[in-house]
Amino acid sequence: MFKVVNWMIVSRSELLVDLLDCRWPQEFLVKLTKTQPSNMAKMLAVEPIEIVFFDLSTIDLQQAYQLQRLIEREYCSIHTVFINFPKQLDTRFLIHPLTIGVFYTDSSLAEISIGLNDIMKGRRVIPQDLLRSMVDDDNHDDNEQLTIREREVLQTLLTGSTNLDIANQLFVSESTIKTHLYRAFRKIGVSSRGQAIAWAQTHMHEVRL
User: Buried b vs exposed e over 141-178: b needs ≥16 C-beta within 10 Å?
Assistant: First the structure.
């Protein structure tokens, strides 16, 4: 008997979701479940989903990271795909062994369709430049060790500084601070600012500059 493949798209864009709902079920013979980020966990509990697609143009990176962590922790058989993946930000911390597809913001629907056909054949579709940068990180730095800047940013959390305060102190953009925090969160195994502060209070002697 033919087995229905279940996909889920997590997005705040009704226009994108409706467009994909018109294409993907017929093109790939799948059932497409549509949900907002806030409802993803509830939907995963009742739907037999195999692939979750995150629309990063409408989901905050911290929330995307937390949702990815939820899947990693509770649904290890579910794979993830990122669409509208930003090139201008270092969002490699989102890539996980469960991630089987990454499509940049400038990818057309036709290019995504070609990539999804490859994914359905069991291939992992991640841009070569992104893979190379991740390999370079592995070769030159231990990804599980905090960088000097990540240590510095974590240390400022103890003062109660906001992301904007930290950015002004370090003369960088607020989005850069967010990226440092998200990467640090992954490395120290936390998923919220409060948990990071608690971790820093216990371990900061290990990460002082």
Answer: eeeeebeebbbbbbbbbeeebebeebbeeeeeeeebbb
Return the closest-CA partner of residue 84 out of 20, 7, 132.
20
CB atoms within 10 A of CB 89: 15
* Total-model pTM: 0.69
Alpha-carbon distance of 191 to 97, in angstroms, equals 18
Locus of tokens 């231990």: 142
Question: What is the percent of the chain with per-residue pLDDT over 90, rounded to a whole number?
Answer: 48
The residue among 208, 153, 148, 139 whose CA lies nearest residue 181 is 153
Six-digit token string for 117: 């056909």
Tell me, what amino acid is at 103?
A: F
Q: In the 8-state DSSP scheme, what is residue 57?
A: T
